[in-house]
Write a structure and sequence with these properties.
heterodimer; A: alpha+beta; Beta-Lactamase; Helix Hairpins; 4 domains; five-stranded antiparallel beta sheet; five-stranded mixed beta sheet; 13 strands; 17% strand; B: 242 residues; Methane Monooxygenase Hydroxylase, Chain G, domain 1; disordered N terminus
């Protein structure tokens, strides 16, 4: 209900004039015109000051007091301010309500959520995070999250800033609890940290791995007996001719089964331990020469196998594991490349570390299979691949071995042209040969 | 105007320095916690590889101590902190010494664990040691939490729990004596276990020290060699005054 402000301004001016006029009249009556005007204006000023005082007083305690009831311009001002105030209150209520809803909904989330600022300090967290990480409300805002969640792996995960992968840790060794951390960056360097309790999942996975390990272990002894008898039978010269074929086939299949069981056992042994291998220096050049010789001895001149060693550097690792990983790649290439094809083995080092690649001129692999190729028993072509006698575990073993050496297995392939399997090792893993050489030359007299 | 900006800038950098060194201490604390958990687990599970790993990794604790120590000296020399900041630095210098000692005790436990793993495990599967280990681990964890939160009340609560460790230690000691009297062939092994228990008890003491530094840091009151009850009444008095 705002009146027209111009009327009010006019009214206010008229009022001052009236007061002055009244002062003149009173002054005439008393005999001092000027004193009359001064006294009248002073009264008016006092009235305005009183209004101002009321307004200030109300503004200071506006939540508890009603607005002052003053007319004219002051009244307009009061009603404007109180309107602004009401509107602000309304917005505040709405935001508060929204915030409360948000808090309630995040509290009911099954995962812990922690919001971090760019300095990795805690801004806010939900109820589940309290439970999972032992955080405390109020006291923990503004504390660096790594100071409270003091798991070394978590600290280095945060520091590295590579949040593509999640992190699984057991915060208390010797206990079953397993937590999974996932960080999502947002805004200007802020982070959203999701914490999930994956103890149950982890247990199930362990059970599955244990089962595979136990089953393959139990299968091994009866298989050895069967394979042994079949071998004796196959060598028996008095075997009836109609039994020869089946026995030979049985022998071949039992050999394949033995290979599968052996691979399964190796894989479960690899999976049982995620820790990085320390190992010993390996002469990669010598290892690859042996691999090539083994392949040529086995397959004869079926393929054209070339070996190029472009670096004298060696590798720190477990010789047995590295041998089995490399052999699996070489063996794979030999199996899937038709007779007369070419296989190229190469070892080189650069700024990124060491690399071993196996390229073949085989039929190649379609792009849709590439991401799943290292899964256990994954077959690109189920009908055909089984004839080659592989266990379907070679690449899975290779991937695990590389993981435990801090490396990576990359697969590139063009259908119809061939495939390249490359093992990448980090720089830390290299045993630099040239250091010794350089040291020799540096101090030789020029 | 410019000087105000500059001083704020300097104090902000200073704060960042302090925060960073505090975070480093807690990082080191986290590593020691993990070493402790691994060491106890190596003994209880009879895992010699894990025990050796603990003994081998102790050098990292030492390295962290040296680097934090240098950082503190640098802050003392370049920033000349006063009052609360100075107390923080002093408390940190003391706390890392305690953490480093904890690391040494863990190394000892790891070494003994790898040696004991080769021998037959006792019938009780080190149940007592496991329990004591759990109590000490909680103690270390809570004391570092109190340090991170600068919470003197929690620190006092944790410091009081050290008594539990001492009682437990006494009990295991008595039990071990009985074992040795029953079966003299087990004496060697029991003595080794006693070393472990002793190390755990020492770790508990170091955790208590860290709690005392927290109280010193916040209240500026040295509470070493003072009865905990007296500390409590003193702190309460201060609290009511404030």
């Amino acid at each position: 209900m705002l009146r027209n402000p111009f009327e009010d301004w006019g009214f206010a001016l008229w009022r001052v004039a009236l007061v002055a006029g009244a002062g003149v009249l009173v002054g005439l009556f008393v005999g001092h015109v000027w004193w009359g005007i001064v006294a009248a204006l002073a009264l008016e000023l006092a009235r305005q000051l009183a209004n101002l005082h009321n307004l200030l007083d109300w503004l200071r305690h506006r939540n508890r007091r009603d607005p002052p009831d003053s007319g004219g311009l002051w009244g307009d001002m009061v009603s404007l301010v109180s309107r602004l105030h009401r509107r602000k209150q309304f917005h505040k209520q709405r935001i508060l309500r929204l915030f409360r809803e948000l808090r309630r909904s995040t509290a009911s989330m099954p995962d812990g959520v922690v919001a971090l600022n760019a300095a990795r300090e805690i801004l806010w967290f939900n109820r589940k995070a309290v439970e999972l990480l032992g955080l405390r409300r109020k006291t923990d805002y503004g504390i660096a999250v790594a100071s409270l969640v003091r798991v070394p792996e978590f600290a280095s995960y945060l520091e590295k800033g590579n949040f593509g992968n999640s992190l699984r840790v057991r915060p208390r060794i010797g206990e079953g609890t397993c937590l999974e951390f996932q960080v999502m960056p947002y805004g200007e360097g802020q982070l959203f940290l999701l914490v999930r309790d994956v103890t149950r999942q982890e247990q199930l996975e362990t059970m599955r791995k244990d089962f595979v390990a136990n089953a393959s272990h139990e299968l091994r002894s009866p298989l050895t007996v069967i394979a042994g008898y079949l071998e004796t039978l196959a060598l028996d010269g008095e075997l009836p001719a109609d039994l020869r074929m089946p026995i030979l086939e049985m022998r071949r299949q039992s050999e394949r089964m033995t290979a599968i069981v052996a691979d399964l056992l190796e894989l479960s042994r690899l999976e049982a331990n995620d820790e990085q291998v320390i190992g010993q220096p390996i002469d990669v050049a010598a290892l690859l020469a042996v691999l090539r010789k083994d392949l040529v001895t086995r397959d004869g001149a079926r393929h054209d196998v070339t070996l190029s060693i472009d670096s004298p550097d060696g590798l720190m690792g477990d010789p047995g594991l590295i041998h089995s990983a490399f052999w699996n790649l070489v063996d794979n290439a030999a199996k899937y490349t038709p007779a007369g094809g070419a296989i190229a083995l190469r070892w080189w080092t650069d700024g990124d570390g060491g690399h071993f690649s196996v390229s073949d001129s085989g039929p190649g692999i379609a792009a849709e299979h590439l991401p799943r190729l290292t899964e256990r028993f994954y077959r690109v072509d189920p009908g055909r691949a089984r004839d080659t006698g592989g266990s379907g575990l070679g690449l899975a073993i290779g991937r695990h071995v590389l993981q435990r050496h801090g490396g990576e297995l990359k697969i590139e392939s063009i259908e119809g042209r061939g495939s390249t399997f490359t093992c990448h090792f980090p720089h830390l893993r290299l045993v630099i040969e040239s250091v010794a050489l350089a040291a020799d030359t540096r101090y030789s007299p020029a | 105007m410019e000087t105000a900006d500059l001083s704020q800038h300097i104090s902000r950098r200073f704060n960042e320095d302090l925060e960073r060194v505090r975070a480093q201490v807690l990082n080191m604390g986290g590593f020691v916690e993990q070493q402790l958990a691994k060491a106890v687990s190596a003994l209880v599970e009879g895992d010699s590889t894990l025990g050796e790993a603990v003994a081998r990794d102790d050098f990292q604790v030492n390295k962290m101590e040296v680097s934090i120590d240098e950082e503190c000296s640098r802050i003392l020399a370049t920033r000349a902190p006063a009052a609360g900041d100075l107390r923080l630095i002093v408390a940190i210098i003391k706390a890392i010494t305690d953490l480093e000692r904890m690391g040494d005790e863990c190394e000892k436990i790891g070494y003994i664990a790898s040696r004991l793993a080769a021998q037959e495990r006792p019938a009780d599967k080190y149940r007592e040691v496991k329990h004591l280990g759990r109590v000490v681990q909680n103690l270390v964890h809570d004391s570092l939490d109190a340090f991170a939160r600068m919470d003197p009340e929690a620190a006092l609560r944790v410091a009081r729990q050290d008594r539990l460790v001492d009682e437990e230690y006494e009990a295991i000691q008595r039990q071990s004596i009985t074992f040795m009297m029953e079966d003299p062939r087990a004496i060697r092994r029991v003595i080794d276990v006693m070393w472990v228990v002793r190390a755990l008890e020492r770790i508990g003491d170091h955790a208590k020290n860290i709690c005392e530094y927290v109280i010193f840091m916040v209240h500026g009151k040295d509470v070493r060699h003072v009865k905990l009850e007296d500390v409590e009444t003193e702190l309460r008095k201060r609290g009511s005054q404030a």
